[in-house]
Amino acid sequence: MPVTGYLIAKDGSAATMDSQTVRHLLDEGELLWLDLYRPDADELGLLTTVFGIHQLAVEDAEQFGQRPKLEDYDDFTQLIAYGVEDAGESLVEVHCFYSERYLVTVRRGDCAAFAGARARLGQRSKPISRLLLLHHILDELTDGFFPVLSTFDDRIDQLQDEIFAKPTDEQLSELFTRKRWLIGVRKVITPQRDLIASLVSGVTDLPGMTREIERYFRDLYDHLIRISDLVDSYRDLLTGSMDAYLSTVSNRLNVVMKQLTVIATIFLPLSFITGFFGQNFAWMVQRIGGLPAFLVIGLGGELAVVAGMLVLFRRRGWL
C-alpha cells in the first residue's frame, strides 16, 4: 500500500511525521526529505507555516493536472515532474520543492520511483545531498517509463499480427485508446525534457549544483531524449497499424464484393435463359418439349453458360 507520508533525516533515518518533528529537523538543518502522499489541508499547511513556501506554489500543489515546469522563487525552487504508476499506465504527477534546507515532494499517485529512492538511501553509507536526492527521484520517475513503453511496443506487435489475421472493432478501439495515452505521455515528456535541459545548460541554476552532480542531470536528460524518441516512434507505429487495419478491412470488403459480383454476373444470363424459355407462346410450347429437350436446352444450356463464364473469369484473373 502507498505510504501516506514519510520524513527522512539527513543521516538517512526515518522519523515520525508530525509538525513538531518537521520543525525541529528543519531548524537544526537535519531535514533531508519530506514526502506527502495525498496530503490533507493540515499537511499542506506545513508548506506555508513551517517551510515558508509561497502561497502560489502551495496552490499549485493543491491543483494537480499541470504540465511539467520549473519555477524559481527567492529561497526555493518548485519543480513538477511525471512518472508512471506501478499498477498500470496512469501518470503520476509529483510536485517538488527544493532548497538548500529541505526537499519536499507532494503527490497523489504511487509509483516505484519513491520505493527506488528510499532503497538508494538505505544502501548509502554516508549522507547524500538534497540535490542529488532530487536527481534520484527524477531519475526513478523517468526510468519508470522504459518498462511500460517496452510492454507497449510488444502489444503493438501483437495487435499488428492480430489485425492481419482478423481485424475487429475491439482492435481499432484499443489502437485509439493507446494513441490517446501516447499523446498524454508526449505532452508531459517533452516539457519535462526541456525542463532538465534548462538545468544542464545553465539557464536555471539550482543551489548546490556542482560539475559532478551536473553529470547526473545530463544522464537524466539523455534518458528523457530516448523516451521522447520512443514515444514518437510508437506514435508512427500506431498510425501505421491504423492504416494497416483500414487497408485490411478494405481489402476484405473488396474480396467479398468481387465474389458477390461474380455470382450476380453468372446468374444474369441464367435469368435471361429461364425467362426466355418460360414464355407461354404456342409455337414454343408445341415444338420444345420432352425430356431430351429439357436436358439439352434447359439444363445443358445453363451449365454451358456457367462453365464458359468461369473459364472467362479465370483467364482474366478475376477468380
What can you tell me about this protein's structure?
- It is a single chain.
- The chain is an alpha+beta fold and 319 residues long.
- Helices cover 64% and strands 12% of the residues.
- The protein has helices at 19-27, 41-49, 55-62, 112-123, 130-143, 145-165, 169-200, 211-277, 282-287, 291-315, and strands at residues 5-9, 14-15, 31-37, 69-72, 77-84, 91-98, 103-107.
- Strands 2-1-3-7-6-5-4 form a 7-stranded mixed beta sheet, with helices on both faces.
- Helix 5 (130-143) packs parallel to helix 8 (211-277) and helix 7 (169-200) runs antiparallel to helix 8.
- The longest helix is centred in the C-terminal third of the chain and has 67 residues, at 211-277.
- The two termini are 63 Å apart.
Q: What count of helical segments does DSSP give?
A: 10
Largest sheet: 7 strands, mixed
Radius of gyration: 35 Å
* Run of helices and strands: EEHEHHEEEEHHHHHHH
